[in-house]
Amino acid sequence: MDALRIWARPSDTPRLLLTSIDATLQRIPPAGVIADGQIELVVGHPFDREAFLNFVRRSGYVEEGVADDPGELAVRDGMIDIYPAGAPGPMRIVLSEDDHVTELRGFDRVSQRTESYLERLSFGPASEAILADVIAVAPAPKSETMERQLSRLYPDMVTVFDILGNAALTAAPGAADRVARNLEIIDDARQSRTDFGETGTSSPCSFYLDSEEWEQRFTGVQTSALDLDQGGDLPSGASDADPRKALVKFAQERLGDGMKVVISGHGKASEALCRRVAKAAGVSPRSVDSWTQVMDADSGALLKLACALDHGFLDVAQNVAVIAAGDEHRHVSSATSFLGEPDLRIGDVVVHEDHGIGILKDLESIAVAGVARDAARLEYREGASVLVPMEEFGKLWRYGSEPEAVSLDRLHTDAWQKKHEKIVADIKSTARHFSTIAKHRQASPAETFIPPRAEFSAFTRRFPFAETPDQAEAIKATLSDLASGRAMNRLVCGDVGFGKTEIALRAAAAVALAGGQVVVIAPTTVLTRQHFATFKRRFEGTGISVGMVSRLVKPSEAKQVKAALAEGEIDVIVATHAILAKDVRFAHLGLLIVDEEHRFGLKDKRAMSALAPTLHTLAMSATPIPRTLQSAMVGVQEVSLLTTPPARRRPVRTSLAAFDNASMRTGLMREYRRGGQSFVVVPRIEDIEAVEAILRKIVPELSVKVAHGKMPAATIDEAIVGFADGDGDVLLATNIIENGLDVPRANTMFIWNAERFGLAQLHQLRGRVGRGGAQGMTTLLTEEGAELPEETRLRLLTLVENDRLGAGLAISLRDLDLRGGGDIAGEDQAGHMKVIGIGLYQKLLARAVAKLGKRLSATRKRAILHLDVAGTIPADYVPDPAVRLNLYARLLRASSQRDVNDLEEEFEDRFGELPQETLLLLRTTRLQLAAGHLGIAKLEAGPKAIAMTIAKMPARVISALTKKIAAIRREDRLIFETVAQTCDEQLKFFERLILAARRP
């Protein structure tokens, strides 16, 4: 709808609208609604707050504390964040005191930090259903579909063709067939509702064009295919240490090949990039104003085009390479940022280190000695509550569960303290376990594997795609591990289809080419067969032999394979857990690769680690189990994250719905008519017969195949592989297909009684569809008429909400929230995290591991500061209490001056100019960190003297502190007899002392 709004505006320049058959078949709101559905903001112009708020509330925007999803906004006095629907990212509107727009900034949805600046911003509604008046129009019933809501709001809807006017239309080849298919689906859906007893619903055809109207509109439209064979994306350059240098080198090489290179963008970034390319290539850039001028330019020309593009591209046919200014800022995902402590929200279950488990009810302002300070209200058992001062926010940790699922602690008893002490003792035991493992690894150096450069480069060139930045970084880290002389223990976490297998192939090639053997273990025979085919194909002609062991391999063949392994005749073996049998021997095993590590139990993992004394291990998973995630969080296991989706991959749309015959038939028939296949997955073998009967009834025209665990292994393999080859329209199966072969034509999945599956299982199942480029759709079905428990509903909604590409890790972290991480050194999956929460457990374990390793804990000690003044984050500066609380917590957990500086920049970026109260808060934090670093435990100021308490401090530091100002030493205290009348004078006195002590 936003695209149609832009199209409807008068324009002197040529325009192109790309749309789909599906979109053109639907009716749309009247032209007047589309034309009026926008807000335009210009830097320097007045801001009509009332009109703005009226528009966003009528047009479907939702007010939140943080705007990080399309259709959300966060309103503050001097700043408004909004994520316009259809925009590439969120925008920040900075306002002056007299309500003028001073800045328009684009910012990152995760970090909330500014990335770009605009002079003008125009955006449309977040919904097609735009209310005439926020108050007058009643909200739509929850059960009302968007089609019915639009029909109710707009009795006179129009078509896309009415908006396009007399524009020339071109259709892709096969458009007529697709229209016919869609019209059949619409008719079938209407008939299904009638056949299966639904009454009182209007015909869905009223919302869509019928065949007669379509023919009338589309008569005479020409068909044409776009030639994209000689185009493509720019290489990521991620394998280079400096992506900016890689981009300049790429441009230099293209100019040397005689291609025209265009640098697109506005402002300093594009100008700087153009200068660097010009200097490297030794050519002078020329500015152009249009694409026509680009086409007319000479070969080998360097051109500047003032045009905002998200990404550059190659057009070999036109001999042009276009580089967008943003291409040099592509970054690699940070494991630390993904695995860090999650933000707190009002209503969360939290754990306070001194009081135990309670609920965070609110953030309140209290007066202490006449000074206003923020405090968190925590509620405990039987309604008792306590106010936690801002100075203690660093002791607050997210518990990681829903309020209904936990038992709150009692205040003013010693029960919490006893639990806490016992768990701390057990955590120390766990830390000793990890310390022993670490010492064993260091004391027993692993073999170094460095492959021959020429052979490894030849193998690398066989990869038919450009590496994503994350892939390149993970490969680099893995090769570094193998060459380090210490046993690798790395987890590669990436969503289905994000390139984990290529990292495994590179690691296997490095070891095998260097003379070692590699074992690749997969949880199922089907997945083992898939990996075997992939590895065999990639290693063909390299001199590396690949074998397979699984229950599908005949005993005689398996015996030959095992003998070849023992003799060193097989370099890479792909297997199920059958390879862990006692009769398997290796001649020179160097690397273990575990795919879908979350599918293996602790017993299997121990057997894997026993395969060789010091074994390099590479584990791969889209959704690692909580125990593995936790070990990665505390730094026991290295982790590489793949969060960059492959080109042209689309996220699988996921919905939660109660089962009904008509909807299921519509979904299955829609997939069949577009030439695709569908999965229907059930949780138990006992459900197969009943669901098969339903399918025979509602889709008798479709071919249904069945696969489950009680069938013979060969039969299962035949059914799944046959389905992948196109045999059958619907595969009815248990979760046996969770790690199956790629089925490129499968784009629809229904999961029966979805509440019976784990989150990781559901995510893996969902990954089976939409792998061939078509839009994948998964419906989580619940029992008709049954009401789900709140905890179960929230768990399933996690999957619905995390339906973007790369959501596997987010789902695992949520699973860690809901289930706990367990005793990571043992079998228990609930463990101590159920008692003290994930965040606090992680902190205590990391601290214990660091202490045993004689390393500094990540959280550096800071001095206690006793003054008659305290800095705050005022509510009128950061209105959302949850955001304010998290900023306090982050500041209190800051471990370096750099952390504080980064937070100061973030404050100014996100919320505007810092007020004096917040500047004071940052100033006192810096003082506390600097004092703590010197070994000072406490800083105090009184009417006649200033004192500091010393924890551990070298004599030279004490000498430096007392060099210019005399002090009296009383045990562990230094007392300075000086009169500092104001708090500012007291702070300056401390700052001068600390600065003098820090100088050499």
Question: Topology of this structure?
Answer:
Elements: H1 2-8, H2 21-25, H3 31-36, E1 39-42, H4 49-58, E2 62-63, E3 72-75, E4 79-82, E5 91-95, E6 101-107, E7 114-118, E8 120-123, H5 146-153, H6 160-164, E9 170-171, H7 175-195, H8 211-218, E10 222-223, E11 231-232, H9 243-256, E12 260-264, H10 267-281, E13 286-288, H11 291-296, E14 302-305, E15 313-315, E16 320-324, H12 335-338, E17 349-352, E18 356-368, E19 371-379, E20 385-389, E21 396-398, H13 415-443, H14 453-460, H15 469-482, E22 489-494, H16 500-513, E23 517-521, H17 525-539, E24 546-549, H18 555-567, E25 572-575, E26 589-595, H19 602-609, E27 616-621, H20 626-633, E28 638-642, E29 653-658, H21 661-673, E30 677-681, H22 688-698, E31 704-707, H23 713-724, E32 730-733, E33 746-751, H24 759-766, E34 777-782, H25 790-801, H26 808-819, H27 833-836, H28 838-852, E35 864-866, H29 881-892, H30 897-911, H31 916-934, E36 936-941, E37 946-950, H32 955-961, E38 968-970, E39 973-976, H33 983-998
Parallel strand pairs: 2-3, 9-10, 12-14, 12-16, 13-14, 22-27, 22-28, 23-25, 23-26, 24-25, 26-27, 29-34, 30-32, 30-33, 31-32, 33-34, 35-36
Antiparallel strand pairs: 1-8, 3-4, 4-5, 5-6, 6-7, 11-15, 15-16, 17-18, 17-21, 18-19, 19-20, 36-37, 37-39, 38-39
